[in-house]
Design brief:
The protein is of the alpha+beta class and 537 residues long. It is 35% helix and 20% strand. It folds into four domains: 30 residues, no CATH class; 100 residues, Sandwich (Immunoglobulin-like), CATH 2.60.40; 168 residues, 3-Layer(aba) Sandwich (Glutaredoxin), CATH 3.40.30.10; 101 residues, Serine Threonine Protein Phosphatase 5, Tetratricopeptide repeat, CATH 1.25.40.
């Protein structure tokens, strides 16, 4: 039996796992402290369904899922109409929020029971007491009075019991602190009752409904999240294809000057407003030398799908005369992935989303949400400046930096690494651009070794998928960038053999054995291939 890891090792593993999960959440745009939506759960257990259990998430439909970063919650019948209202204490604004239950006193009549305790031998407020309310049908309702009801929160000391329509109270008992149990008579549904220790008879409290309720405030729809990110230097776009208005596939690449690529959907009101603004500002954009390409993303983002004719009529109705097309499925995803790779933070795939290209057709700015034409024109004017000038404009104030902007090769390598898992071929493309031709040692350069490794993994996947043609291409690429990777040579011979290229497969093995004469697998495979060739006429 393997020895069990010691406690320190387990603790370290748990810490690392938690750290990685937190880092992943932050990179995906989740918050670990702030702007976390409130949650509300409905208890699905029911007396008439034995064994029923579990909770349903009703946060959205309840209207309680605010992003206020709530810290405390208190329950109280604020307007004294027989139902509970909610007070939220938030870290951010509004610091206090009241959610008033608008059922009327007439609607609540007979459907609730409110009890207030008074201790004599026990503490004055009856903290710690347990109240048992038995209904006429035998149902038992239990509450415990506590000093505090959550993080830095204290709900009302009136203990509220929600009752069904027509419910009758059979008995009420209080188990006071230190174990004394006392029954109280005279309690009826639909009112507030004062229970004093030692009296045994409930006294109805004089509670008058609030005559001047607080004025309600209409909830505002959240403002669309928007941001602008200007890069200190351009980064090449991934290969992004789209279908133009004539249905022909084209690559998003235009080195002729500043170019704004806008992704939109036919059903998004913010997209419509942005396209209208671009149409109205066409003369300003033309004067600044900025072209526009609008790519529809109906096929990528959930929502209604419009056909090409409907899209054309939609744009014509807006007076939009710039070129447009339709995303074939990966253009927006690749561009969003590029943004994530550069910012090291993933965000939700949403529209409108735009990218400003410089004169070399490289990504230079990202816009999430609606973008102002004036801002685009100002950003385009900065593209011809140095990286330091761009960075100064981003910061917004002068001064000297302790470090220089990342080199172009460094940006390309970092971007390629970020693309490796989801878009491996794009990763290879970025990494290749970072390798000066003929100026590196293919055996030791970490970039070429990474390229070879990605090619090798792609080749293994292709072999497993019974695609020897692709496998041979990938393994050849692996050998090209890392000649000493013998496993790539061995698998290249397998792919050649499966393609019927027996002589080529033999040559690959001979080259491998010239590097490592003792390679057992290569010698065995070469024996099989030689025998096959000898049998051929």
């Amino acid at each position: 039996m393997a020895p069990k890891p010691d406690a320190d090792t387990d603790a370290e593993r748990q810490y690392v796992a938690a750290w990685r999960a937190t880092l992943a959440a932050m990179k995906s745009g989740d918050s670990i402290s702030g702007h976390e939506r409130n949650m509300a759960f409905l208890n699905r257990a029911a007396p008439d369904r034995p064994g029923s259990r579990g909770f349903a998430d009703i946060s959205a439909i309840s209207g309680l899922d605010f992003t206020d970063d709530a810290r405390g919650l208190a329950l109280v019948d604020w307007d004294r109409d027989g139902d509970l209202d909610l007070w939220f204490r938030n870290r951010s604004a509004p610091t206090l929020r009241l959610m008033e239950n608008r059922m009327s006193a007439e609607q609540n009549a007979g459907r609730f029971l409110a009890l207030r305790l008074e201790g004599t031998a026990a503490n004055r407020d009856g903290i710690g007491a347990r109240i048992e309310v038995t209904l006429a049908d035998g149902s038992l309702l239990v509450r415990t009075l506590t000093a505090g009801s959550g993080f830095l929160s204290q709900s009302s000391k009136w203990l509220h019991f929600g009752l069904g329509e027509g419910a009758k109270v059979r008995s009420v008992a209080v188990r006071w602190p230190f174990g004394q149990r006392e029954e109280f008579s005279g309690v009826a549904a639909g009112s507030w009752w004062h229970l004093a220790q030692g009296r045994g008879v409930a006294r109805e409290a004089d509670i008058t409904p609030q005559q001047q309720p607080l004025a309600s405030i209409a909830q505002q729809l959240p403002i669309l999240d928007s941001s602008r990110t200007l890069l200190s230097a351009g980064v090449p776009l991934p290969e992004m294809n789209y279908l133009n208005a004539d249905g022909k596939s084209e690559i998003v690449a235009d080195p002729s000057g500043p170019h704004l690529i806008v992704f939109w959907t036919s059903w998004c009101p913010h997209c419509k407003a942005e396209l209208e603004a671009l149409a109205l500002g066409a003369a300003e954009l033309e004067a600044a030398g900025i072209d526009v390409l609008a790519i529809n993303a109906d096929a990528v983002i959930d929502g209604p799908k419009a056909d090409d004719q409907e899209l054309g009529e939609f744009l014509k109705g807006l007076g939009f005369a710039f070129p447009w097309g339709r995303d074939e499925g990966l253009a927006l995803q690749k561009l969003k992935h590029l943004e994530h790779a550069l910012l090291d933070r993933d965000t939700e795939l949403a529209v409108p989303f735009a990218c400003l290209l410089d004169a070399q057709g490289e990504a230079s700015a990202f816009y999430r949400g609606p973008v102002e034409i004036a801002q685009v024109i100002r950003d385009a004017a900065l593209l011809s400046g140095s990286a330091n000038a761009r960075r100064t404009s981003i910061v917004g104030f002068g001064g000297r930096s302790f470090s220089s902007p990342t080199s172009r090769e460094g940006r390309l390598v970092d971007t390629g690494i970020q693309f490796q898992e989801r878009f491996p071929l794009e990763a290879i493309r970025y990494l290749k651009m970072a390798v000066p031709p003929g100026q590196v040692d293919l055996k030791t350069n970490p970039v070429t070794r990474r390229i070879a490794g990605i090619y090798y993994l792609l080749g293994l996947d292709a072999l497993e998928a019974n695609d020897p043609t692709s496998a041979a291409s990938y393994f050849s690429g692996s050998v090209e960038f890392r000649p000493d990777l013998l496993d790539a040579r061995l698998n290249l011979s397998v792919a050649r053999f499966r393609l019927g290229q027996v002589s080529e497969a033999k040559q690959v093995l001979e080259d491998l054995l010239a590097i490592d004469p003792a390679h057992a697998a290569a010698r065995a495979n070469l024996k099989v291939i030689t025998a096959k060739l000898e049998k051929q006429p």
